[in-house]
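FW: tagging you since you asked about this chain on Friday. Here's the raw sequence from the shared folder, copied in full. Didn't touch anything.
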Amino acid sequence: MEVGDRVRVKESVVFFHHPEHRNQPFDIKGFEGEFIQLTTEWQGHEISANYPYLVKFDKKFRAHLAEHELEII
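HL: got it, structure written out here
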């Protein structure tokens, strides 16, 4: 997976920080977005993030996901 790829969430993933459904469980299965960053470094130090794939779904909603939760479209 490369930066700029279009991706789809293929598994059920529930978020509570979706801008339109704040503080309520919201499943993003089937959502499509753009892969924008692989989080492997923070302030110059190598890290091993649990959810390293940052995906931008729209202007207000971004989420960190695991590789097995995404598929390239």
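FW: The mean pLDDT is 92.
HL: agreed, and The CA atoms of residues 1 and 72 lie 7 Å apart.
FW: great, closing this out.
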